[in-house]
Specification:
516 residues; alpha/beta; Rossmann fold; GMP Synthetase, Chain A, domain 3; 3 domains; 5-stranded parallel beta sheet; globular; binds xanthosine-5'-monophosphate
Length: 516
């Protein structure tokens, strides 16, 4: 079935997938495509509306991006956001120039409630800005519908032609009324009824994968985490027994985790999957010995994973495809295109240059974590698995700052198990579901302590707990002191070679969730 579609034309901004995601939240299918798409190609797709995204370029002068101006003649409603707003303004005869001052972040905006997008928005609102150019003068036929002390045209519209623009970003959480503005565009202006939901995504993903794989064999890199489990179930529904799931114990898993994963996905478990467990601990320890640089560690782990999968694929024979549970934040943080690399997620930037598979399938690569969970529920995956806190592919390897040894792995495993047990039990189990992620890490700090009248010189553990839903930003959780106190006492008493415990109070940004 063809769903109502909003096309998001990508001019290179940071939030492009976020725009698509907000449209999906309104139950309307959104597809992100490059700004170079021709008017003819767009017409063939028959979208109900188009959104032109933000981007780092200037809308005028030599650096301006070349797009097909005929898109303005298609009679399809257009919303321009930030750079997209400037594209509309410049392309239709308005004036775009360098702003007298840049606006970054939280900005107060005066709204004209008669604007079609703003009927539900108060006259003064807070929006998120990020620009150095601005629309100095709206094109002929446009009405200015919002302004700030710096922007004379913070929003504009030409209702008769179906053109709308906001200099600010309605898609980010910090724009207070953003979702209402997007809803007005998608539902009122474009007339979308909302015929898409996560079930449609799942059906479509199964169909697409089935077509791609044909009669080939597929190997799924299964870690037991939410993303790879959801990917494996999609693949299993798509190609059944053509799929083999390979679970690699790289010796950097949490305490008892390998057995727990095998119990769910292996023989006699919840799923009827062909499941292979590879015990590759020593191989990873050998490669990682003495390596301290976080990016090197990530790359080594990423490459070793692939080599293990290649070996298993050869044993199975004729495996064309490797399936990975990559999700969108993995891609954006690994620095695609011109974006900065924050860290190489093992399944994206951590991949070696040569991979011995015909293709890699990543059915979730455009979704955010909470959307993956919705997809998991649609697929009937048990709630306790879908709601598991994420665990990174490189595992404890990026929770041990500095070089990795078996002894350090054991220390962090034990400390982490105590911490997770106490958090899970706290307040009758009410605290844990409020936390996006919580874990222990080994700090690479040794300090002097005194235990039973003896001097100690031992490791310090760091505890981390964050509140987040999309894992792109996160707030350090204000854990109750009695909990931290109990966990600290237990770790210091029960885990050999630990004599100190820290609590990490850093938000993301400026920190990241993991330590490396
Ligand atoms: P950061 O540390 O980037 O983490 O703030 C954001 C989320 O991503 C997880 N993470 C990873 N997941 N492979 C993964 O599968 C990786 O290489 C990786 N690095 C970080 C992290 O646990 C958090 O949920």
């Amino acid at each position: 079935m063809q769903h109502e579609t909003i096309l998001v034309l990508d001019f290179g901004g940071q939030y492009n997938q976020l725009i698509a995601r907000r449209v999906r939240d309104l139950n309307v299918y959104a597809e992100v495509l490059p700004y170079t798409l021709s008017a003819e190609e767009i017409q063939k797709k028959a979208p109900k509306g188009m959104i032109l995204t933000g981007g780092p370029n200037s809308a005028y002068g030599p650096g301006a991006l070349e797009y097909d101006k005929d898109i303005f003649e298609l009679g399809i409603p257009i919303l321009g956001i930030c750079y997209g707003a400037q594209v509309l303004a410049h392309g239709l005869g308005g004036e775009v120039a360098k702003a007298p001052a840049s606006e970054y972040g939280r900005t107060e905006v005066d709204i004209n409630k008669n604007g079609r997008l703003f009927a539900q928005v108060p006259e003064k609102t807070i929006a998120w800005m990020s620009h150095t150019d601005y629309i100095k003068k709206a094109p002929k036929g446009f009405k200015v519908t919002a302004e700030t002390p710096i922007c004379p045209v913070a929003a504009m519209e030409d209702v008769s032609r179906g053109f709308y623009a906001t200099q600010f970003h309605p898609e980010v959480m910090h724009t207070k009324e953003g979702i209402k503005i997007l809803r007005s565009f998608v539902k009122d202006v474009c007339g979308c009824s909302g015929d898409w939901h996560m079930g449609s995504f799942v059906e479509n993903a199964i169909e697409t994968v089935r077509e791609k794989v044909g009669s080939g064999k597929v190997l799924c890199a299964l870690s037991g985490g939410v993303d790879s489990s959801v990917s494996a179930v999609i693949l299993s529904k798509a190609v059944g027994k053509q799929l083999t799931c390979v679970f690699v114990d790289h010796g950097l898993l949490r305490k008892n985790e390998a057995d727990e994963v095998e119990a769910v996905f292996g023989k006699g478990g919840h799923y009827d999957l062909d499941f292979i467990r590879v015990n590759a601990q020593q191989r990873f320890y050998d490669k990682l010995a003495g390596v301290t640089d976080p990016e090197k560690k990530r790359k080594i782990i990423g490459e070793e994973f692939i080599r293990v999968f290649e070996t298993e694929a050869k044993k199975i024979g004729k495996v064309d495809f490797l399936v990975q549970g990559t999700i969108y934040p993995d891609i954006i943080e690994s620095g695609p295109g011109d974006s900065a690399t924050i860290k190489s997620h093992h399944n994206v930037g951590g991949l070696p240059e040569h991979v011995d598979f015909k293709d890699i399938i990543e059915p979730l690569k455009m979704l955010f974590k909470d959307e993956v969970r919705k997809a998991g529920m649609e697929l009937g995956i048990p709630k306790h698995l879908v709601m598991r806190q994420p665990f990174p592919g490189p595992g404890l390897g990026i929770r041990i700052i500095g070089d990795i040894t078996e002894e350090k792995v054991e220390i962090v495993q034990e400390a982490d198990a105590i911490y997770r047990e106490e958090v899970a039990a706290y307040d009758g189990g009410k605290l844990a579901p409020t936390l996006g992620q919580y874990f222990a890490a080994l700090t690479n700090v040794r300090s002097v302590g005194v235990m039973g009248d003896f001097r100690t010189y031992d490791h310090a553990i760091a505890l981390r707990a964050v509140e987040t839903s999309d894992f792109m930003t996160a707030e350090a959780a204000k854990l109750p002191w009695d909990l931290i106190e109990k966990v600290t006492t237990r770790i210091v008493n029960e885990v050999p070679h630990v004599n100190r415990v820290f609590y990490d109070c850093t938000n993301k940004p400026p920190g990241t969730i993991e330590f490396e």
